[in-house]
Specification:
0% strand, mainly alpha, 138 residues, rod-shaped
Length: 138
């Protein structure tokens, strides 16, 4: 009977030891399963956040590119306006030059009395302006 009881106790201890190992293994598997689920959720969160940041960055780049193109367009328009104004200035300068030549021609044809009268009128106007300025300054 002693041997049977010893064999029974030994088998019982081995069964308990195997059950304990089984429980530990099940617990470890459950813990691994929970960690795997948590890692999966973390990975999905990271991927979605990364996609969101990527989209925001791409949108920002598109906006900056659009601003740059708008500035370039504005600069081109301003350059065109500057060229137009320069062209008009040159045109007016040429026209003024032609009119001055015509004025000189007309003055050369004019009588000397007219030129002297004109110089006298200009001198009188200048003197009048000087006198008025001096009176106001006092």
């Amino acid at each position: 009977m002693f041997l049977a009881e010893l064999a029974y106790n030994t088998v019982d201890e081995e069964i308990k030891d195997l059950q304990l190992k089984q429980e530990r293994r099940d617990h470890s598997l459950n813990m691994s399963k929970e960690e795997l689920k948590k890692d999966n959720v973390d990975l999905i969160t990271f991927i979605s956040l990364d996609n969101k940041l990527k989209q925001e960055k791409e949108q920002k780049e598109r906006d900056e590119l659009k601003k740059k193109q708008d500035k370039e367009d504005t600069l081109k328009q301003m350059d065109q306006k500057i060229q137009t104004v320069k062209s008009e200035i040159e045109k007016n300068h040429d026209q003024l030059k032609g009119l001055k030549e015509y004025q000189e021609f007309v003055l050369e044809l004019s009588a000397s009395e007219f030129l002297e009268e004109r110089k006298a009128m200009m001198f009188d106007k200048t003197e009048t302006v000087k006198r008025n300025w001096i009176m106001k300054a006092k």
